[in-house]
Automatic annotation (TrEMBL):
SMART domains, alphabetized: Lactamase_B
UniProt-recorded name of the protein: MBL fold metallo-hydrolase
Database matches in SUPFAM superfamilies: Metallo-hydrolase/oxidoreductase
Keywords: Hydrolase
Pfam families per record: Lactamase_B_2
Amino acid sequence: MGISFTVLSSGSTGNATVVRNGETTLMIDAGLSAKRIEELMAMREMTGQELDGILVTHEHSDHVKGLGALARKYNLPIYANANTWAAIEKAVGNIEEHNRIILETGEHRDFGSMRVESFAISHDAAEPVGYNFYDGREKLSVATDLGYVSDKVKLAISDADVLVLEANHDIEMLRMGRYPWNTKRRILGDMGHLSNDAAGAALSEILTGRTKRTYLAHLSRDHNMIELARMSVRGAMEDRGCFYKDHEFRLCDTYYDRPTPWDKVSGS
């Protein structure tokens, strides 16, 4: 069957993604209320009863808001590294011991034929991670909430068939925006969020003929727009000599208020 996925919601108001194959269905983060996550899943004709577990990238509220409630309602295991577990204790609340599972950064875990591997990213959290998903020769990579794309991250996400990558803000929109300077400095820093230009620069370095689609994720509602993100990322790639045709590679959208269509990693 291979890997398929839907980005249920992406942005500063909440994040959740579902990845599945024929045997396993996993959620990455649960950053909206449990009720809202259930509504988003229903839009993609699934329920929480289909989930086999939740993977956590880091402890910020837009990634763990509904985590405890969802895990308790459906008796789901939660996977996170030890430092992230320590950081989410209060927010998550009471979780059965057998559902508190440590997956350290850099380790992998097999869920039937699907292998999940975490990798370190740069963000102002306890120990933030991204995730790779493998099934046979298929590879899906998810990397958001990172201040910059380090060489190790580039190596981790290279040769993904499909990539979900942060394109949080337009730099000039952020600089001219309403946020106080200390918040702007945090977002622009190496422990903040990836700009459109930085996302494009990273893609220009890691793209091979294998990567067919990149979903631009975690867009700021105040300092970015879907069309601008797509145009800026593509422009940054072309500025660095990375040209492509739409039938060879596509930039795809994510949304804060609705899920993306189910997408098969092996699909064209």
